[in-house]
Structure formats: structure tokens, C-alpha cells
């Protein structure tokens, strides 16, 4: 779907050319009566799967590094809280990925976009992950006395990993 002006360039979902083509594709489908199923069927998601795996790995790596730093600088409980938060962020990311993949499969598999039926398990995955995080943080805080702030810092590992993977994609495309 996405094309680049530079020969051999892999499009990134964060690049301007990808976003422009994505908007124009949706506009074509909406205003010209094109078929979204046909257009979306031509998308190759292979390059993005690598970035998703990179984000998942970086979440755990950055969480482990921050956890070791928390253990060294503060206490074992703070380090454990950061690692617990990073693990919850990783579970959140995996659950979100699988739910969105199911929604995308359901949307592209059905002929008429206005009557697209999203699987109920996917909707639960999209909403239930927040419930899982909230209950996990509460139970861990109450029963194990792990500081909430350290778990929140660990949850930020996903954001840091996403930024790191995005910067990697940007700098890799400069070659």
C-alpha cells in the first residue's frame, strides 16, 4: 500500500508518505465508492511485525534495566514494582496487539464495511486490559506493599520502548 520515493525504502507507519497515502486511500474509499476490502487486502504488514516485536522486547529490556536501577538506588520493593509495571505494560501491549489484529481481520474479511461484526472477545481485550492493570496494581499494592509509583514508572516502559523503536525506524530509514 505505502510507496516511497526512495528506491528500496521500507515504509514506516510513522513516516509522512505512509500517513498521506493512508489518508488518500481512506478518502478514495469514502468519496469515490471504492472497496476498502480490496484496498486493505493489498497491505503487507510484514515490516510492521518486526517493529511490534522490537517494541515488546524493548519494553522488557528497559523495564529490567529500570528495575535494576530501582533496586540499586532505592530498595528491592521499588525495583520489584518497576519490573511488575513493565511486565503489566508488556501484557497490555500483547493483549492490545491480538485484539486489534482480530478487529482488522474481521473488518477485512467482511464484504460490506457498514455491517462489520467485531468479535466480542476482541472488544473485551480492548477494554479488559485496563481492568486487568487496575486490579493487578491494586492487589499487588495491598497484599505485597509494593509502591504504586514504582509500578506506574514500570508501566511507562512501554512508552519508552515505543519511542525507542520509532527512533530506530527513523534513523534506519536514513541509510
Q: Mind explaining what this structure looks like?
A:
The chain is mainly alpha-helical. The chain has helices at 16-32, 36-41, 46-73, 76-109, 120-144, 148-155, 157-173. It is flat and about 55 Å long. The model is unreliable at 1-9, 15-20, 27-33 and 36-40 (pLDDT under 50).
Q: What are its keywords?
A:
175 residues, mainly alpha, 7 helices, 77% helix, flat, disordered N terminus
Order of helices and strands: HHHHHHH
Helix content: over 70%
Structural class by secondary-structure content: mainly alpha
Q: Tell me, briefly, the overall form.
A: flat
Oligomer state of the chains in this structure: single chain
Q: In terms of per-residue confidence, which ranges show pLDDT below 50 for 5 or more consecutive residues? A: 1-9, 15-20, 27-33, 36-40
Q: Largest sheet at a glance?
A: none
Chain-wise SSE layout:
Elements: H1 16-32, H2 36-41, H3 46-73, H4 76-109, H5 120-144, H6 148-155, H7 157-173
A few lines on this structure:
The protein is mostly helical. It contains seven helices and no strands.
Amino acid at each position: 500500500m505505502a510507496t516511497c520515493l526512495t528506491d528500496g525504502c521500507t515504509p514506516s507507519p510513522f513516516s509522512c508518505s505512509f500517513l498521506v497515502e493512508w489518508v488518500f486511500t481512506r478518502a478514495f474509499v469514502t468519496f469515490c465508492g471504492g472497496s476498502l476490502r480490496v484496498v486493505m487486502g493489498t497491505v503487507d504488514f510484514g515490516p510492521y511485525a518486526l517493529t511490534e516485536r522490537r517494541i515488546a522486547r524493548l519494553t522488557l529490556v528497559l523495564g529490567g534495566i529500570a528495575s535494576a536501577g530501582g533496586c540499586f538506588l532505592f530498595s528491592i520493593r521499588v525495583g520489584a514494582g518497576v519490573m511488575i509495571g513493565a511486565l503489566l505494560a508488556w501484557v497490555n501491549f500483547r493483549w492490545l496487539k491480538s485484539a486489534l489484529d482480530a478487529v482488522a481481520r474481521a473488518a477485512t474479511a467482511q464484504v460490506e464495511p457498514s455491517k462489520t461484526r467485531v468479535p466480542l472477545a476482541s472488544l473485551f481485550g480492548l477494554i479488559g486490559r485496563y481492568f486487568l492493570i487496575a486490579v493487578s496494581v491494586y492487589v499487588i499494592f495491598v497484599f505485597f506493599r509494593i509502591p504504586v509509583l514504582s509500578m506506574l514508572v514500570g508501566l511507562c516502559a512501554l512508552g519508552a520502548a515505543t519511542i525507542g523503536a520509532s527512533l530506530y525506524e527513523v534513523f534506519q530509514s536514513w541509510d
